[in-house]
What does this fold into?
Amino acid sequence: MKALYPGTFDPLTNGHLDIIERGSKMFKHLIVAIAENKRKKPLFTIEERVEMAKESLKSFDNVSVLPFSNLLIHFMKEHNINIILRGLRAVSDFEFELQLALMNRKMYPDCETVFLMPSSKHIFLSSSMIREIASLGGDVSCFVPHPVFMKIEEKFKMIKES
Ligand code: ADP
It folds into this structure.
């Protein structure tokens, strides 16, 4: 069974990594699908987000990373996948995730969404919080994989110098 873990991953955090680790044990193959998501105006380009994720996930034999910019269900059909993996942190995630899962199933009836909970130590982690802390000069090294930390340092150094 193949599954797809879609998101913006701007950038990938240890919370995402936790879900990927759990998913990689449940599914034969897991694709981390990185949405271009121009609407969200990501801090990192799609190329940077893919590169950081690939670098951070290279120890997983059955996990691959792909970018996508079309509708999720179209991307899933192209890759012959009908399972979506999503992470649930708190009640606050639930309403949006329920709406998304039901909308995807309405458009693609064979599509099922599987939710996994991360370890409690990752419950409070979000990409937006990482971006906020890093932009104010805070140390985020314990919240993200090392390749992501290196790229964050580089990005904010560049922004500061420009
Ligand atoms: P999106 O733009 O789709 O919300 P994200 O990159 O923010 O993309 O998140 C992708 C998925 O990972 C979502 O299901 C989100 O709930 C989940 N997620 C994000 N952060 C964490 C975390 N700390 N622990 C568990 N799941 C998480």
The first helix runs from residue 14 to 26. The radius of gyration is 16 Å.
